[in-house]
C-alpha cells in the first residue's frame, strides 16, 4: 500500500475493540514497474470491503515499509485476503516487487487515541 496518499498525515483513530489488524512489513526490490498503479488500485479496492476500518503507512529512510490495515472482524480480513485482484497483486509482489516481507495478523483487545488539543490563540499585537 502506498505511503504517498493524498490523505492527511494522521494515524487511523482507534476503533472500538475488538478488531483485527494486519501488519505488513516489506523491503522492496529495485524494480518497481507497475507498483504505484497496483498499489493505488488495492487502496481503492480495500475501501469497498465491508468491515474495513482504515490503514496506516510508514516508510523508513532505509527502505523498510510498514502498512497496518484495520478490520472490524475476521470475516472482513478474510474477504480482503481472498479478494481475486488482491491475490493477483500478492503474486506479482512476490515475483517482482518484494525482496522480503512479514505479515502479522492480530486481534486487538485494547487501544486508545491521543490528539494534542490546539494551542490557545493569544491576543494579537496591534
Automatic annotation (TrEMBL):
It is an enzyme of class 1 (oxidoreductase). SUPFAM superfamilies: Dimeric alpha+beta barrel (SSF54909). GO terms for molecular function: monooxygenase activity. InterPro entries: ABM_dom, Dimeric_a/b-barrel, Jasmonate_Hydroxylase-like. It comes from the Bacteria. Its EC number is 1.14.-.-. Keywords: Monooxygenase, Oxidoreductase. It holds the Pfam family ABM. Gene3D superfamilies: 3.30.70.100. Residues 27-92 form the ABM domain. This is Antibiotic biosynthesis monooxygenase. It comes from Streptomyces glycanivorans.
